[in-house]
Amino acid sequence: MDAVFTKCEKCGQPIYEKDLRARFNVCPNCEFHYPLSAPERIRLLTDTGSFEERDGGLFADDPLGFEDYRQRLEKARAKTGLDDAILSGTGAIGGRRVALAALDFRFIGGSMGSVVGEKVARTIEVAGAEELPLVIVSASGGARMFEGVYSLMQMAKTSVALSRYVEGSWPYVSVLTDPTFGGVTASFATAADVVLAEPGARIGFTGARVIEQTTKERLPEGFQTAEFQREHGMVDRIVHRLSLKGDLERLLGFLP
Q1: Cβ(94)–Cβ(252) below 8 Å
Q2: CA distance readout (Å), 10 to 20, 27, 33, 71, 219
Q3: Averaged over 39-65, what is the pLDDT?
Q4: What is the pLDDT of residue 1?
Q5: Rounded distance, CA 98 to CA 26, Å?
Q6: In the CATH scheme, what is the code of domain 35-252?
Q7: What secondary structure does DSSP assign to 116-139, as a single string?
Q8: What's the pLDDT tens digit per position in 100-116?
Q9: Average pLDDT, the chain
Q10: Cross-strand bridge partners of residue 89
Q11: Which residues lie below 8 Å from residue 182, measured CB to CB, with a gap of 6+?
Q12: Where exactly are the structural domains of the chain?
């Protein structure tokens, strides 16, 4: 119902849910960025009617026979309407065609299993073959350990695909959203010509507690936020979600 209110988890102010949806899940009071699904992310970034999905119908297998994994996959597909934790294809941003992929955290935490890695690699290959700029939006907890080494292999697969793509003259823009962690951060998400991030996005390789236990050192406050990463050179620019398409248009506008 359009008249339903929700309470912002950041500022505590009531928000009309229809207003929240209209602003692509950004609070109108404090500008807090809630998670955004991959289909809505595509709608936000691309020119109306320009997106064409590629590589649909790829479904993850259960190579390890991991307990309850098939059930988790079925539940995630029913919940999201997606084949896996990614939506990929080509579209236009400000009239310029791009190859585009967006991860969806609703699907088992946006984890990178064999299908996500394959679709990312194929998107990169399409960008290279068709001489298109590449845009990938990440929202992931990292590797999908239900698939074990098959999941970890996707880091190498996507990195090799990127190494071939960057030999050309077209740019790769990576957009980091909350959260971007693990093998996604360690592979394609941060290996870009330009790295953008949404305000307040949590970005890192592993959790703070694990790092502190391993290094035996106290970590700086907020060291895994987009703002901290920007200050220390890991992120080039922090961009409000509602300004993101405009920023991408300007970046792509530098191309011949």
Answers
A1: yes
A2: 14, 9, 9, 33, 24
A3: 96
A4: 45
A5: 25
A6: 3.90.226.10
A7: HHHHHHHHHHHHHHTT--EEEEEE
A8: 999 999 999 999 999 99
A9: 95
A10: 53, 100
A11: 112, 140, 141, 142, 143, 205, 206
A12: 1-34, 35-252
